[in-house]
Design brief:
The complex is a heterodimer of chains A (117) and B (147). Chain A has 117 residues and is α/β, with parallel strands linked by helices. Chain A is globular, with a radius of gyration of 13 Å. A five-stranded antiparallel sheet of chain B has the order 1-2-3-5-4, with helices on one face. By secondary structure, chain B is an alpha+beta fold. In chain B, α1 packs antiparallel against α2 and α2 packs antiparallel against α5. Chain B has five helices and five strands. Classes of the chains: A alpha/beta (117), B alpha+beta (147).
Chain lengths: 117, 147
């Protein structure tokens, strides 16, 4: 389990949806640029890491009950996407980290906990 | 056994309208939530609806989605006018896709749509006429959970 504020700190992320609850917890993480894969395999409540920054990401997360999105590699969604996420209470984070590095850090956190770093 | 619908609504879907993609599935999800259905049932219906909606937008010229909810099931019927599917068995194969690069750039067209609709359905029927269109019937049983 990892909470939103830990994700922000770990990935040096920027919260694009100010006011999102920082203690929201994610039991699983799913990383993909393919929304087809998210719809097929991601578990409800998961945190999504993606390099895709179009409105379909928010819609996919809403339909499949994902709990938050991290846009990796400096990708930033447009204001329309951020507005849509706010309406659906979906926290969005942007990080400059590449996908592999972000996934590696999160995997270490899951393995060793917050004090393993 | 046929049961009386407690809710029914029809939604038009326009082929190629990527800007509105997902709007029908999101609306269906909200309606099912309002009807008080179980979260797992809603998720399965919303995912199946989203995949079906994307298929109409990506491949057909126009279509309509009909949502019918009874005390026993959620039924989504999708009718489109379009090129149809030449080989349904092949189209049902995971990973088989005729998507264009543009569709893939949007994060879709991985060849998982139809198999994922089937996976999320308790009953799934597909019928297609080449050059005319495709009809899907998606049924998700609610196990007596009354909306």
């Amino acid at each position: 389990m990892i909470v939103l504020k830990d994700v922000l700190a770990l990935l040096k992320g920027e919260l694009l949806t100010p006011g999102s609850p920082l203690e929201v917890a994610f039991p699983k993480i799913f990383a993909s640029d393919l929304m087809s894969d998210v719809l097929t395999s991601a578990e409800p409540g998961s945190l999504l890491l993606t390099g895709l920054a179009n409105p379909h990401v928010v819609c996919t997360c809403s339909v499949a009950d994902l709990a938050a999105v991290v846009f990796v590699q400096g990708k930033r969604p447009g204001p329309d996407v951020i507005d849509q996420a706010r309406l659906k209470s979906l926290p969005l984070i942007a990080t400059k980290m590449p996908m592999f590095e972000a996934c590696s850090l999160l995997a270490l956190f899951f393995k060793d906990g917050p004090h393993g770093h | 056994m046929a049961t009386e619908d407690v809710y029914r609504q029809e939604f038009p879907v326009k082929g190629g309208d990527f800007a509105k993609a997902g709007s029908v599935a999101c609306r269906i999800k909200e309606l099912l939530k309002d009807l008080g259905l179980d979260a797992k049932i809603i998720r399965r219906a919303a995912i199946a609806a989203y995949e079906a909606e994307m298929n109409v937008i990506m491949y057909a010229w126009q279509g309509r989605m009909d949502l019918a909810v009874s005390t026993q099931e959620v039924r989504i019927t999708v009718d489109d006018k379009g090129p149809g599917i030449v080989d349904i068995e092949l189209a049902m194969t995971e990973g088989y896709s005729t998507a264009t690069p543009e569709m893939r750039e949007l994060g879709f067209g991985a060849g998982m749509g139809l198999p994922n609709i089937k996976r999320n359905s308790d009953v799934f029927h597909i019928d297609s006429q080449t050059g005319q269109g495709t009809r899907l019937e998606i049924i998700i049983l609610t196990n007596g959970h009354k909306p």
